[in-house]
Amino acid sequence: MRILVTGGAGYIGSHTVRQLIAGGHEVVVYDSLELGHRQAVPADRLVVGDLRDIDHVDQLLVAHRIEAVVHFAAYAAVGESVAHPAKYYTNNLLYPLQLLDRCRRNGVQKFVFSSTAATYGVPEVVPITETTRQLPVNPYGATKLAFERALADYADAYPFGFCALRYFNAAGAAADGSIGEDHTPETHLIPIVIQAATGKRPHVEIFGTDYPTPDGTCVRDYVHVDDLAAAHILALDKLAPGMKLAYNVGIGRGYSVREVIRTAEDVTGLKVPVKEGPRRAGDPPSLVASADKLRAELGWAPQYDTLKAILETAWRWHKAHPNGYDG
Ligand code: UDP
């Protein structure tokens, strides 16, 4: 298939691009490199550009006779979305709506979308299934849900099918340590914990210790980035016009912030300095997936089913690239 991957030089995008290329697909990566990394994708696949430049995207759809779009390009920091909703509504909703319409006009009939567990808000029941009510509690989740709805309306009205993959917490790195997680600034728990273990930051601050969870800290479902990437390949294989697919992607097990810290100490053999702090705005107490539907319908079978196994790959990447891609 000829596939345009927006945000393909980012963390999850680059792992997916690698699998798409290995699967024989013709891949064009479109990335502004604001958060993505040139080194994360083969140079001959990369087109540097911003989603805001929709005519540029349109030219690529036409020139490469694109059949499917895998859309990663977005901002993904919950706390930032609360402080700067305009940034999220513009980048995560306005530009993607333009992209979607150019897909329609250019006959692109398959679309895989990076959605999120944040669309569920504070779920009434855990584990979360795909039919759990979607009621986001932060602008990040709200923009992702709004775009899911637009995709569904397009699929009802036009020859178009989509798959929304609702990611839980992506973590880890390629098994060979060649590509991995590198955000600036880093906001995600696992890389922050590793940075605190290695002395690159003084401590990890725990955002809230008074949540209604077993140890008072937030619980999340951490899924390995290569397992997450594999879900995109399965979705593309399945997609056809008229399909409206949505799947949770998580391993179905929750770990608290304290458990992440303890496991990181175990994996690295290093002490992680900790500071207890207040809650971060917009954080639900517990997000754990039921990914039964993804397993049953697409045959998804994650290779990494424990936090420890995931953290080992994150640690390998960090040791080989202590300063990320630019080191
Ligand atoms: N977290 C934390 N300290 C940090 C970063 C994150 O306690 O420095 C917590 C955060 O409140 C959340 C969990 O770790 O409960 C995972 O946060 P992350 O930002 O990695 O992913 P999110 O769940 O927001 O997508």
Automatic annotation (TrEMBL):
GO molecular function, one term: UDP-glucose 4-epimerase activity
Pathway: Carbohydrate metabolism; galactose metabolism
InterPro entries cross-referenced by the UniProt entry: Epimerase_deHydtase, NAD(P)-bd_dom_sf, UDP_G4E
GO terms classed as biological process: galactose catabolic process via UDP-galactose, Leloir pathway
SUPFAM superfamilies: NAD(P)-binding Rossmann-fold domains
Domain NAD-dependent epimerase/dehydratase per the UniProt entry, residue ranges: 3-250
Record keywords, A-Z: Carbohydrate metabolism, Isomerase, NAD
Family per similarity comment: Belongs to the NAD(P)-dependent epimerase/dehydratase family.
NCBIfam families: galE
Protein name: UDP-glucose 4-epimerase
